[in-house]
Write a structure and sequence with these properties.
There is one protein chain. The protein has 298 residues and is an alpha+beta fold. Strand 12 and strand 13 form a beta hairpin. The radius of gyration is 18 Å and the shape is globular. The termini are close together. The model has no long low-confidence stretch (mean pLDDT 92).
């Protein structure tokens, strides 16, 4: 487990999975192979496998202790969940044990923030108990964007760009709603407390959001899947193939990076291995990485 302090907020990183998630030329089709090779010296091995050309991804949850509350940002893959992706199908990475090692029991969690409702961000929203999917965190409110809830709800009749995700919705989202623990926020932003605000950043999904942290003099943006690889921090116009609207996703990414550079905010994507996050700077319309996150091992 790794930890850092941002203002008055303690931030811990709980990793459920790290490894290959697919070929870079398939997942990021607009990125030329030469660009990966150009930046291979610092992307490998944490963010790309130089030998196989595979994207290296972490599935992780960020634990924030804010205003006397325990907040989880995304809940990973879950256990016993079916998936069309081999590495995530029926995955069980010992997540609850790792969460316990961070000092968090399921009943301790006050708030779950789902940055969006893709299955690798909502898996531990629920767990299987006597054949029924029930909320994993019995005392928590779960914040989800209304736009994503409506889009992924099979009852709405939307046709997602990729494979149907109704099973994940029924397993990982709907039971939380039925238990009365889901809070569906709407509009461009939703304030959680004096330090935390959710801001809409659509494109990857219609309701993708960024969690903005401002505490003391520290700033951070938990950007979910607005960014998948640090290569996108310096080349923001390239998007992953699974976004619902790639052009809008690129616009959101550039806007978020501009905000990060202007406010000296740490950029914390959902899937970065290695340092897990970085600060960026902007000069003459281009971005570069200033420094990596100050995470320390615990």
């Amino acid at each position: 487990m790794q930890k850092m302090i941002l203002g008055n907020i303690e931030v811990s990183r709980v990793v459920e999975y790290h490894g290959a998630f697919g070929a870079t030329d398939v997942l990021f089709p607009s990125v030329p192979g030469a660009l990966w090779r150009q930046h291979e010296s610092w992307l490998a091995p944490d963010f790309v496998n130089a030998e196989t050309g595979e994207w290296q991804s972490s599935v992780q949850t960020w634990v924030l202790r804010s205003a006397g509350r325990t907040v989880l940002v995304d809940t990973g893959l879950g256990s016993d969940k079916s998936s069309e992706v081999e590495v995530t199908n029926k995955h069980d990475g010992g997540f609850l044990d790792r969460l316990a090692a961070a000092g968090v029991r399921p009943e301790d969690v006050d708030l779950v923030v789902n940055t969006h409702l893709h299955d690798d961000h909502v898996g531990w929203n629920t767990r299987l108990v006597e054949g029924e999917w029930v909320p994993t965190f019995p005392n928590a409110r779960y914040l989800m964007s209304r736009a994503d809830f409506d889009f992924w709800n099979p009852a709405s009749g939307h046709a997602p760009r990729f494979a149907d995700t109704g099973t994940k919705f029924n397993d990982s989202v709907l039971p939380v709603r039925q238990a009365g623990q889901a809070v569906l926020w709407e509009g461009d932003s939703h304030r959680i407390d004096e330090d935390l605000v959710l801001e809409l950043a659509p494109g990857h999904t219609p309701g993708s959001a960024v969690l903005r942290l401002e505490s003391g003099t520290d700033r951070a943006l938990f950007v979910g899947d607005v960014i998948h690889t640090p290569l996108q921090m310096i080349e923001p116009d390239h998007d992953i193939c699974v976004s619902e609207d790639q052009a809008e996703a690129a616009r959101s990414r550039r806007r978020v990076l501009e905000q990060a550079a202007e406010t000296n905010s740490l950029v914390v994507p959902a899937h970065l291995g290695g340092a897990g996050a970085a600060e960026v700077v902007r000069s003459n319309g281009t971005f570069s990485i200033k420094r990596w996150a100050p995470l320390s091992d615990v």
